[in-house]
Amino acid sequence: MTEARPTVEVVRRSGRxxxxxxxxxxxxxxxxxxxxxxxxxxxxxxxQFVGLCVALAVHVPLLLLWGAQAEPLVAWNSLRSRSGxxxxxxxxxxxxxxxTGEYRYRTVTHTWLLTPRRSRVLGAQVLTVLAIGAALSTAxxxxxxxxxxxxxxxxxxxxDRPAELLSAYxxxxxxxxxxxxxxxxxxxxxxxxxxxxxxxxxxxxxxxxLDGARFHGPATAPLGILLWPTSETHVSSLLAAxxxxxxxxxxxxxxxxxxLPS
Amino acid sequence: MGETPRRxxxxxxxxxxxxxxxAVASEPGAWPSAGTGTAPAVxxxxxxxxxxxxxxxxxxxxxxVPAGTVTGFLGANGSGKTxxxxxxxxxxxxxxxxxxxxxxxxxxxxxxxxTVGAVLEPAAHPARTGRNHLxxxxxxxGLPRRRRGPAVDEALAAVDLTAAADRxxxxxxxxxxxxxxxAGALLGDPELLVLDEPANGLDPDGIRWLRRFLRSWAxxxxxxxxxxxxxxEVTQTVDHVVIVDRGQVVLAAPATEVGRGHVEVRTPxxxxxxxxxxxxxxxxxxxxxxxxxxxxxxxVGRLCAAHGIPLVELHTTGPDLERTFxxxxxxxxxxxxxxxxxxxxxxxxxxxx
Lengths: 262, 353
What we know:
Helix content of chain B: 25-40%
Largest interface: A-B, 51 and 65 residues
Shape of chain B: globular
Number of helices of chain B: 11
Number of strands of chain A: 0
Oligomer: heterodimer
Strand content of chain B: 15-25%
């Protein structure tokens, strides 16, 4: 850096508005502001944003090549898996990256200095993943539904049975969001993406081998819903996926007190 | 070394290097008051201990940072400086003792990031631009929307990064990242700066910039605590010195009392001048050179004027922190090697001369 350095002068910004401070000790920023910060980090960090765009873009060739099933029933029954399966695991990975990126680049130091109550940061990350998961799953669900409706007509895609349609939509959103939140939890617990990926992979293998855990563990519970036809819902897998998201978030919250050494 | 600053174990230096103070609050929810001297203490570290398994990183570390001063927290690599600062800022939990800012733990401060500007490491996402990095820090600070942009611009200008603000941080040099980190610390317009090794990676120009910046900071009436293992870089900057060695404070004193400088004289008539001075004050440094105790410069000037002795050079050197530091730490080494004193803790409790 060879640019000329101006005279250093520290000026106290005494006249400026101090803005909205926290209301209590260690209050820090509000949840809305923390979520906005997470979204700003995603859009300015480039790679996470590009990753999300890629996750969406992957659906385009699939939609074009396999979007129009010959049989109306097949189009309906594959709606849930086609709109949610890839996205659920993309969101799980995104949740991991959202958290572990902070540790990888050590920006978690700034984050915790700005918000000493670490659970609030975790809460904002969970809300961010929920918002993004809901938005993306809505987009993919709408796209796959529209493709089927264009080929076979809206009634074939249950437009005349809104409860059925809404149920399919909500389940996709729930699975995608639960997977994303589980990713945040695993990322917080492991503090590193390789460790998180390894933990998820190992868990998936163990769940696949063990009869009782298959489609009910944190890695395979979304499969228990999204691999099956839209007309079939395994409630136990649905509850397991949501429960794992809650349990992993609670475990992550409890682990936040760990030291952050240099 | 003219004066007799004390080791941390003695504690009365400036009345603020620890002292007997209750380790716990007298009332539930209340913390011990920070300092009792003339200047209130912004930072109060009391009997801080940190153990990682069987390794004791810190042991009974106590010191204070008086308000309105720049305090140098000095020590070799691995001496416990960073651990102390991380405990102070709530990144690491203490095994025992406490570290308070304005009488409270960091996480209990009403607006922590606007009370303390901290640089623990020059961390930033490499794909993010410098400006966007600061925007990400400014948003949770709670600045009004209209103030956020100008605050980021001011911080960039203060560290001279305006020209590089829209480049990804990954393209920055280590020194530029260090200055970006300082810009982040300035965003909240804090009263206290805590900087961990701020000169790491700075070129000589950058170090000079940092020195001027810290002087300007102190001149604005605010406080700073900066750690460093490069003594030369802080010698001209700090008002107060805390030296830590192997997890223990071995010295806490005002810089003016630490290893005072001396008067260097060069004159072709050095012998004649030496005869006019007290023999015990004079150290010959060459055929035309004398070294005299701190404070004699004016007397030398008057003597030379009165006796027509030509002066080639007459100046007072700054505090010899480096010498003080090595005196303290090498003495510890010697005692450790000879098995005397039963370890650094006991040695730190003794008087220092």
